Amino acid sequence: MSNTDTPLPQSDKSVRHLRITQPSPWVSRWAHLIETSGTVLDLAAGGGRHGRLFLDRGHTVTFVDRTAEPLADLRGHERAEVIEADLEDGSPWPLAERRFDAVVVVNYLHRELFERIIASLKPGGVLIYETFARGNEDFTRPRNPDHLLKSGELLQIVHGQLQVVAYEHGLVQGADITGVKQRLCAINDLSASIREDGEPPAHEISRV
Ligand SMILES: C[S@@+](CC[C@H](N)C(=O)[O-])C[C@H]1O[C@@H](n2cnc3c(N)ncnc32)[C@H](O)[C@@H]1O
């Protein structure tokens, strides 16, 4: 699904994507966990504000969206790849078996993709996910419950597959959009333990 409950004309969609240009603080906060020079997938990228953050940090970034027009300026960038693909129309997954050092998904939810998203992480790869959750209908779109995460849903999805480094659920104000969000940062290293008790490696969660 898109987080657009009412379909907009193509040109209006592009304008909406471009309206928000600053990366989500949640994505910025966890960017340091991604391997230096690692590859990043910005899924349902919109205007690419998160992929652009990672380009600035020196990463190689693959942007995927059904509308590539807001990413047109990136064509020719030596570390940017733009793939125009509909992720929900039943077409083959556009990334085949490719794996990334990070996958970033913000303000987009199509539950059928979660298996693909997790399988797209390299060992040690980082998933940064943030989108709207139930309760958001009191503030802004999306309001369709199908397009809103349930309490704890991201935790349930990655349970047993990824190590959760951070999770939040609640009202977010003063960021890109005021609304109820669920946010997750998780790492594909549950099986990477070198400890007797099988615990996965610890990651830096605070520089204070
Ligand atoms: C609310 S925007 C979020 C954009 C970006 N992640 C951000 O945070 O700025 C949702 C994005 O999902 C894309 N999208 C919606 N449905 C899609 C589909 N079926 N296949 C691919 N992209 C889709 C839209 O084109 C739009 O760019």
* Global geometry: globular
Q: H/E element string?
A: HHEHEEEHEHEE
Q: What name goes with the CATH superfamily?
A: Vaccinia Virus protein VP39
CATH class: Alpha Beta
Average of the residue pLDDT scores: 90
The helical percent reads: 10-25%
CATH topology: Rossmann fold
Estimated share of beta-strand residues: 25-35%
Count of spatially separate domains: 1
Quaternary status? single chain
Low-confidence stretches: 1-18
Bound molecules: S-adenosylmethionine
Euclidean distance between termini CA atoms: 38 Å
Rg from C-alpha positions?
A: 17 Å
Labels describing this entry:
single chain, 208 residues, alpha/beta, Rossmann fold, seven-stranded mixed β-sheet, 7 strands, globular, binds S-adenosylmethionine
What does this 3D model show about the protein?
There is one protein chain. With 208 residues, the chain is of the alpha/beta class. It has a single domain (10-187), classed as Vaccinia Virus protein VP39 (Rossmann fold, 3-Layer(aba) Sandwich), CATH 3.40.50. Helix content is 17%, strand content 26%. It is built from five helices and seven strands, in the order ααβαβββαβαββ. Strands 3-2-1-4-5-7-6 form a seven-stranded mixed beta sheet. Strand 1 (39-43), helix 3 (49-56) and strand 2 (60-65) form a beta-alpha-beta unit. The radius of gyration is 17 Å and the shape is globular. The termini are far apart. The structure holds S-adenosylmethionine.
